[in-house]
Amino acid sequence: MGSGFQCAKHPMENRLPALEPGIPITFIYGANSWIVREPGLWIVKKRRNGSTVNLHVIGGNGHHVYADKVNKFNKIVLGACMETDNRKSAAATARVGHHSPPNASAL
């Protein structure tokens, strides 16, 4: 009989180096979820130093926040998407007027 401890088959932690540093990460947890949030957050923040890493804990529910607190969950997801879109827009605006000369293969 097992100890009841569960582990991910392919932990996200091992795949973090493959993500571009500019990609923000948002974690959403239920306050009463069985998932322990602190180690994952600190591991991600440490490995993605200088990147945006957000953590949201939604009170009054367990693990399935997307079903238990639909409106709060959707508000956080939409906020994360808008934040990313705003960053992309700001970066694109900063590049306007700064064109690189064509390279020889483009001629």
TrEMBL record:
<comment type="similarity">
    <text>Belongs to the peptidase S33 family. ABHD4/ABHD5 subfamily.</text>
</comment>
<dbReference type="InterPro" id="IPR029058">
    <property type="entry name" value="AB_hydrolase_fold"/>
</dbReference>
<protein>
    <recommendedName>
        <fullName>Peptidase S33 tripeptidyl aminopeptidase-like C-terminal domain-containing protein</fullName>
    </recommendedName>
</protein>
